[in-house]
Amino acid sequence: MTCITSTKHAAHRTSRAIPHHDSQKRGAAMSWRLVLPLAIAAVTFSGASGYAATPSSVQAKIRYCKDCHGLSAQGYRGYYPIPRLAGQQPQYLKNQLRAFINRSRPNPIMSNVAHVLRPGMIDAIASYFHRLHPPPIGGGPRGLVAAGRSIFENGVPQDDIAACAACHGPHATGRGEIPRLAGQLYHYVVKELSNFPRERGQNPAIHGPSFIMLPVAHSLNRHQIRAVAAFVSSLR
Amino acid sequence: MPVTPNGRRYLRLIGSSTRLALPATAIFLLALSAAGPAHAAGADTISRQAVNAKVKYCEICHGASMRGFRGFYPIPRLAGQQVEYIENELKGFAEHTRINRTAPGATNVMFNVGHVLSPAMVKALATKFHNFNPPPVGGAPTAHVAAGEKIFKQGIPGANVPACMSCHGPDAKGNGVIPRLAGQLYPYVVAQLTNWGHERTEKNSQIMAPIAHQLTKPQIEAVAAYVSGLR
Predict the structure, then answer these.
(1) Do B113 and A157 touch (CB under 8 A)?
(2) pLDDT tens column, A126-166
(3) Each residue of A186-223: b (16+ CB within 10 Å) or e?
(4) A206-to-A203, A209, A210, B56 alpha-carbon distances in Å
């Protein structure tokens, strides 16, 4: 809905701008003295709107995000598990949106969502979602929580699996570019860990956090993935 | 035991004497299986593959080339670290004289990591790490580097703080049981010096206890900023 409206506005602006420009060209030489300041004003204006999102446009965009990510961004089980964004680290959210835009994190739906977002909008929605704190949606197998806690806190050193807590924190709240896992959807965590190389944007050249997780996800077996997902999905 | 294509060709080569070849293969396999455990039991030899796999595991938290990583906690640089120091710390973790918990009540993360390592693996890893030389991670505040350098080189005699350099060396490279500080993560050095007595209770660390206790917070931050920038 938001996308359609903004496209209409853009089209409207263009249709008005072109005849105006043409008439200027058709006019006398004096009109050039008008065009240049107008062009400068236009560039300045579009530049400013690119970095400062208005409160109403931010609110509209947040409602749009919540259509899929849940009314309080607690995550939602659609056809696919749609992740919780509430309480998520702003730097992580920004990195992921950028990864969707440059398609290093392959997800066609999110690429379309993200590539219309200006940097100012990305900053605004990332800090908004960070402040939300709804309870976890639940639904993970409770029987696996204890086993998952052990993996999360201690790792499995004999299988070369690092303790999740070392980077994600003892309460799985994450830090900076390292994501919060507390309260994340069980099915989403299982899906990401099971399919890590194809789900996440990782670039060996920059050795970013997704690249760091690659060997960990690879070393975890199915049972361990389900256990650790059950544990983190239960955390508040 | 499935017969590989190569194995079949070998059998064909010796022609009709399959009756001979089978016992020969059996003896060969027996010899192999006997050699296997003997090889593993000699704990001072470790395959390069096993060491490299373990190095990869360590790099997950300690960063590429062990340059250190800012996870939820600052995870220290081990690149260029003194071999004996790394051995001592891993021993300290295994004996619970060096405490490293991610949460109150949680078990000691580095205890879990350390206690599955054989002494030969510890030695091999420590040697590997000692030979890494990536640039420092950086990120320390630059304002107090000069003050930190002064503390490092001259100490604070009025506060009974000796010059760090007298033990850690003029380039902060350390020596034997004394750790390298050059390029160490700023927040890690700050955390260690601030929390010395709670984390480091092993014998070798006792010499640092009064020094860490004497340093004020701004002094700790200054000296941490200085060493974290050294290559």
Answers:
(1) yes
(2) 999 999 999 999 999 999 999 999 999 999 998 999 999 99
(3) bbbbbbbbeebeebbbbeeeebbbbbbbebbbebbeee
(4) 6, 9, 10, 16
pLDDT of residue A148: 97
What is the spatial distance between Cα A15 and Cα A13, in angstroms, rounded to a whole number?
6
CA distance B138 to A177: 17
B184 touches B139 (CB < 8 A):
no
Length of chain B: 231
Q: How far apart are the first and last CA of chain B?
A: 54
Other Cβ atoms within 10 Å of A70 Cβ, number:
22
Residue A77's closest CA among A206, A191, A219?
A: A191
Residue B116 identity (one-letter amino acid): V
Q: Which residues of B touch A157 (CB under 8 A)?
A: 112-113, 115-116
* Full-model pTM: 0.75
Bridge partners (DSSP) of residue A178 are: A175
Tokens linked to A115 = 């590539």
Maximal C-alpha separation, chain B:
92
The mean pLDDT value for A76-82 works out to 94
Alpha-carbon gap: B102 to the closest alpha carbon of chain A (Å): 5
Q: Are the Cβ atoms of B112 and A175 closer than 8 angstroms? A: no
Alpha helix stretches (DSSP H) within chain A = 2-26, 32-51, 55-69, 90-101, 108-115, 119-131, 145-154, 165-168, 186-194, 196-199, 209-219, 222-234
**In whole numbers, what is the pLDDT of chain B averaged over residues?**
84
